[in-house]
UniProtKB/TrEMBL annotation:
Pathway: Glycan biosynthesis; glycogen biosynthesis. This is Glucose-1-phosphate adenylyltransferase. HAMAP family: GlgC. It catalyses: alpha-D-glucose 1-phosphate + ATP + H(+) = ADP-alpha-D-glucose + diphosphate. CDD domains: ADP_Glucose_PP, LbH_G1P_AT_C. InterPro entries: ADP-Glc_PPase, ADP_Glu_pyroP_CS, GlgC_bac, GlmU/GlgC-like_hexapep, NTP_transferase_dom, Nucleotide-diphossugar_trans, Trimer_LpxA-like_sf. Homotetramer. It comes from Albidovulum denitrificans. GO terms for molecular function: ATP binding; glucose-1-phosphate adenylyltransferase activity. Keywords: ATP-binding, Carbohydrate metabolism, Glycogen biosynthesis, Glycogen metabolism, Nucleotide-binding, Nucleotidyltransferase, Transferase. Residues 15-284 form the Nucleotidyl transferase domain. The record marks 67, 106 as: Could play a key role in the communication between the regulatory and the substrate sites. It is an enzyme of class 2 (transferase).
C-alpha cells in the first residue's frame, strides 16, 4: 500500500487482537467464557477497550484470534461489532483456532496465532500491524504509537507502562538507553533495571507491539521453522529483535487518552478476582480514575435494547435507592438499598435487601432480605432470600470462593451446592 500525503498511519494499519486466553486467575468467572469476554463496567466486555481504542484511533481493519471457550466472545462480536462494511474498506475478522495449517495444531502461542493467519493478514494489504492483548482496561490513541514507530525506523515498537521499580518483578520489563531503544527484555526479573533519569521506575511491557507487516511476516515464517521456539511474542520474537534488531519503547503516558477528570494514565490488568472487583468498584468513586463518560473517546459495545432502570418503594427500611453506584438499563431496585456498587443489565434487587461494594453481573436476582457486601456475583445467579455474604469470612469461605483480599465470588453452582448441603 502506497501512503498518500498527510494520510493517517492508522489507515494503513490493522489491529490483530489476541483473545484466546482463559484467564485462569479469574477462576469460575472464566469457566464458561474467555477472559476478554468477561463483563466490565456495567455494560461492556473487557475486549471492547482494545477494539474501541483501535476504532477511535482510525483503524478500520481488525482481526480477533480466539481459542478458549470462544462462543460468548464471538456472539458479542457479531452483535456489537457487526457495523464494519467491506465496501468502505472496513473489515473485522474473527479467527478461531481451526486447524487451518495442520489438523493437529491449534494456536501454539501468541506468535503462532498470527502465523497461522498470514494469508488473511496479507489480504488486508496493510503496511503496519498492531498486536494487541484483548484483556486489559485502558484508553490509548494508537496513531501516536504508529507515528513514533514510523519516525524511529524501529523493527518493533513496544508499548510500555512506567511502574515503580519495586513492583516491576511481576512484568516483562525493558532496559532502555537514553534514546528509548530497548537494550534488554527481561521476563519478571528479581532486580528490575531503573530508567535513564529515573532510577526508581522501570518500563513494563503492555503486550502491545507495532511492526511493519513485511518485517513481521518474515520473522513469523522463520520462527515457525524453529523447533526450539515456543512461538510467543514475549518469550521468543521480542527478545530476538532486541538482540539482533532495533526495538524501541513507547511510553503509555504519551498516547494515553484522558479527559479533564483523569489525573494519571490508567491501565489495569483485571486478571484476578480482587483486581476485577477493585477496577469495577473504582468506577463508583466521585471522580473515578477511569472516565467512561468521555464522549470524545467512546467505549463501543453491544448496546442492548432495554428499558431504563427503575427504583420503587419509598418507606422506611424499604426504599429503592442507589448511592455512589452505577445502575444499568433494565435494572429494578425494588425496596433495596444499593451503595458503592455496580449493577449490570437486568439485575433485580428485591425488598429489604442490601448491596454494598458489590459487582453484580447481568440478570442476577437478589431476593428479599439478602445482604451482600464485598462480592462479585456471576451472570444469571439467583441469590436466595436472607443470604448474608461479607460478614463472616469463615462462613463465606465454606460455600463460596473468598480471595486473599476478602472479596467473595458467587456463582449459581456454588449456591446449588450450598442448598443441597443445607437440605
Amino acid at each position: 500500500m502506497q501512503p498518500r500525503p498527510n494520510q493517517r498511519l492508522s489507515s494503513q494499519a490493522m489491529a490483530f487482537v489476541l483473545a484466546g486466553g482463559r484467564g485462569s486467575r479469574l477462576k469460575e468467572l472464566t469457566d464458561k467464557r474467555a477472559k476478554p469476554a468477561v463483563y466490565f463496567g456495567g455494560k461492556t466486555r473487557i475486549i471492547d477497550f482494545a477494539l474501541s481504542n483501535a476504532l477511535n484511533s482510525g483503524i478500520r481493519k481488525m482481526a480477533i484470534a480466539t481459542q478458549y471457550k470462544a462462543h460468548s466472545l464471538i456472539r458479542h462480536m457479531q452483535r456489537g461489532w457487526g457495523f464494519f462494511r467491506a465496501e468502505r474498506n472496513e473489515y473485522l475478522d474473527i479467527l478461531p483456532a481451526s486447524q487451518r495449517v495442520d489438523e493437529t495444531k491449534w494456536y501454539l502461542g501468541t506468535a503462532d496465532a498470527v502465523t497461522q493467519n498470514i494469508d488473511i493478514v496479507d489480504s488486508y494489504d496493510v503496511k503496519y500491524v498492531i498486536i494487541l492483548a484483548g484483556d486489559h482496561i485502558y484508553k490509548m490513541d494508537y496513531e501516536i504509537m504508529l507515528r513514533q514507530h514510523a519516525e524511529s525506523g524501529a523493527d518493533v515498537t513496544i508499548g510500555c507502562l512506567t511502574v515503580p521499580r519495586k513492583e516491576a518483578s511481576a512484568f516483562g520489563v525493558m532496559d532502555i538507553d537514553a534514546t528509548g531503544r530497548v537494550t534488554a527484555f527481561l521476563e519478571k526479573p528479581k532486580d528490575p533495571p531503573g530508567m535513564p533519569g529515573d532510577p526508581d521506575s522501570t518500563l513494563a511491557s503492555m503486550g502491545i507491539y507495532v511492526f511493519d507487516w513485511a518485517f513481521l511476516r518474515d520473522l513469523l515464517i522463520r520462527d515457525a521453522e524453529d523447533a526450539n521456539s515456543s512461538h510467543d511474542f514475549g518469550h521468543d520474537l521480542i527478545p530476538d529483535i532486541v538482540r539482533n534488531g532495533k526495538a524501541m519503547a513507547h511510553r503509555f503516558s504519551e498516547s494515553c487518552v484522558r479527559s479533564g477528570l483523569e489525573e494519571e494514565p490508567y491501565w489495569r490488568d483485571v486478571g484476578t478476582i480482587d483486581a476485577f472487583w477493585q477496577a469495577n468498584i473504582d468506577l463508583t468513586d466521585f471522580i473515578p480514575k477511569l472516565d467512561l463518560y468521555d464522549n470524545t473517546w467512546p467505549i463501543w459495545t453491544y448496546a442492548e435494547i432495554v428499558p431504563p432502570a427503575k427504583f420503587i418503594h419509598d418507606e422506611d427500611g424499604r426504599r429503592g435507592s442507589a448511592i455512589s453506584s452505577l445502575v444499568s438499563g433494565d435494572c429494578i431496585v425494588s425496596g433495596s438499598e444499593v451503595r458503592n456498587s455496580l449493577l449490570f443489565t437486568g439485575v433485580r434487587a428485591h425488598s429489604w435487601s442490601a448491596l454494598e461494594y458489590a459487582v453484580v453481573l447481568p440478570y442476577v436476582q437478589v431476593n428479599r432480605k439478602a445482604e451482600l457486601k464485598n462480592c462479585v456475583i456471576d451472570r444469571g445467579v439467583i441469590i436466595p432470600e436472607g443470604l448474608v455474604v461479607g460478614e463472616d469470612p469463615a462462613e463465606d469461605a465454606k460455600w463460596f470462593r473468598r480471595t486473599e483480599g476478602g472479596v467473595v465470588l458467587i456463582t449459581q453452582e456454588m449456591l446449588d451446592r450450598r442448598a443441597a448441603a443445607l437440605g
